[in-house]
């Protein structure tokens, strides 16, 4: 008897959770294939610490073959899905083409940087969705301080020591909070820059930082950022970006060589070419997470418009918590379609959120309990260690070393600007310029 063929496209939070749960439920009775551009699962919440030079990038990359025994991993990007013949067509890492047949398909392709029609942003800004972008930002910040040291023009020095972060959600707040501590550490090694304070601007069109959280936690994060000298400007964004700086929506020009784009995400563009119903770029699924009229196709995570049972008529937001839980539910429902267990609709309970502000500062609301300062820091790090599928001890050792040693501030120059364009459908992969 032929084993069932289950193909999972994408190894983010949703795809990784689905593959891990299916492997445990199938126990070798199904052929599970995972298609992903990289051979690792990326734990994105710790990317700001990678960019700040606090964590080795390998710590946040969990090997798929090592973590998913019994799951076949294929390196490649899905290009087309033929629902009639039940085949996934993909392009390999060395431009070779291939196809995979399936009996059940899980689409967990995730999301990419959200673009807005603002002149110059695509050319001069950089996102923050993958390891290449995090490594680029770290090297770029170090490089700007070093170039400021060698510059004799005061205006150039000021521009190179000015960093603009657009988007005051989780990622933008953590990038700015960690970034100001990084530049403060860098300045100690450059006595010629004595008297110059690196300038960090955090912009958002919302009326406060972290609008997803309650006002208490939002204000706590705001106090920490402003206390470190971050210029928090709400109700504001970038009107135009240039190679020399950015025009803000209030008409002020800020000279800078650094524009970090953290305004949010959009579903992976591959969703558009599937020929299936979408809602704001996300695949429409029912409460059981499979596509209407195609019960063999399931979707979860950022690329799926999953009905939110707690908010009738709305879909779940694009968060790692939802993606991970949806991946697990998809796995159980697929197993149920083969007679193992019971198919159930997606349900969730909000466990709260954590935001690491660097140093001893954080904000968190575990199970609805608002925390800030050191207690929130303990909860935040505990949450990350529990959520990581591997590398816990290595990350804990990095944290311990950072507590007693100076951070490493060398730039390796491995990732340069053309390799990490903002407008890319694969932020997890460096782009090779033609």
Description of the molecule:
With 434 residues, this protein is of the alpha/beta class. The chain has helices at residues 13-26, 47-51, 64-67, 121-124, 131-150, 154-160, 170-187, 215-227, 320-337, 373-387, 392-404; strands at 4-9, 30-36, 40-42, 61-63, 71-75, 77-82, 87-91, 97-101, 104-107, 111-113, 162-166, 199-204, 231-234, 238-242, 245-248, 253-255, 258-261, 265-267, 278-279, 282-284, 290-291, 294-299, 304-305, 354-356, 362-364, 371-372. It has a six-stranded mixed sheet with strand order 5-2-1-9-22-21, with helices on one face. The protein is globular, with a radius of gyration of 22 Å. The termini are far apart.
Query: What is the strand tally?
Result: 26
The termini sit apart by: 48 Å
The overall average pLDDT, rounded, is 92
Main beta sheet: 6 strands, mixed
Q: What would the principal axes of the Cα set say about the shape? A: globular
Portion in beta strands:
15-25%
Task: Give me the side-by-side strand order of the main sheet.
Answer: 5-2-1-9-22-21
Class derived from helix and strand content: alpha/beta
Which radius of gyration do the C-alpha atoms yield? 22 Å
């Amino acid at each position: 008897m032929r084993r069932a063929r289950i193909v999972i496209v994408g190894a983010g939070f949703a795809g990784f959770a689905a593959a891990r749960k299916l492997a445990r439920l199938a126990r070798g009775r199904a052929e599970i294939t995972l298609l992903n551009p990289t051979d690792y699962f990326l734990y994105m919440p710790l990317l700001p610490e990678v960019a700040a030079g606090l964590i080795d990038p390998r710590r946040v990359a969990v090997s798929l073959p090592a973590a998913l025994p019994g799951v076949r991993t294929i390196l490649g990007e899905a290009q087309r899905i033929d629902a009639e013949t039940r085949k996934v067509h993909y392009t390999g890492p060395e431009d070779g083409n291939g196809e995979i047949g399936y009996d059940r398909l899980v689409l967990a392709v995730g999301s990419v940087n959200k673009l807005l029609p603002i002149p110059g942003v695509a050319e001069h800004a950089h996102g923050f969705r993958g390891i290449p972008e995090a490594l680029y930002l770290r090297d770029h910040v170090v490089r700007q301080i070093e170039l400021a040291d060698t510059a004799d023009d005061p205006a150039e020095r000021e521009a190179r020591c000015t960093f603009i972060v657009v988007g005051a959600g989780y990622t933008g707040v953590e990038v700015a909070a960690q970034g100001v501590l990084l530049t403060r550490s860098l300045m100690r090694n450059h006595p010629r820059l004595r008297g110059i304070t690196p300038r960090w601007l955090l912009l958002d069109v919302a009326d406060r930082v972290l609008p997803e959280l309650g006002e208490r936690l939002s204000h706590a994060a705001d106090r920490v950022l402003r206390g470190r000298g971050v210029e928090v400007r709400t109700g504001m964004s970038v009107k135009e970006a240039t190679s020399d700086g950015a025009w803000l929506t209030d008409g002020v020009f800020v000279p800078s060589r650094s524009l970090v784009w953290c305004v949010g995400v959009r579903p992976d563009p591959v969703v558009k070419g599937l020929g299936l119903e979408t809602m704001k770029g996300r695949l429409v699924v029912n409460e059981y997470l499979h596509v209407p009229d195609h019960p063999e196709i399931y979707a979860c995570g950022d690329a799926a418009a999953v009905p939110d049972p707690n908010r009738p008529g709305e879909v779940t937001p694009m968060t790692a918590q939802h993606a991970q839980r949806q991946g697990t539910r998809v796995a159980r429902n697929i197993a149920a379609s083969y007679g193992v267990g019971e198919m159930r609709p997606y349900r969730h309970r909000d466990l709260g959120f954590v935001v690491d502000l660097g140093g001893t500062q954080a904000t968190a609301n575990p199970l609805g309990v608002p925390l800030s300062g050191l207690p929130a820091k303990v909860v935040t790090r505990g949450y990350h260690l529990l959520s990581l599928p591997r590398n816990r001890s290595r990350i804990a050792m990095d944290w311990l070393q950072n507590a007693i040693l100076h951070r490493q501030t060398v730039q390796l120059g491995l990732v340069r600007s053309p390799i990490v364009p903002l407008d890319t459908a694969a932020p997890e992969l460096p782009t090779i310029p033609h």
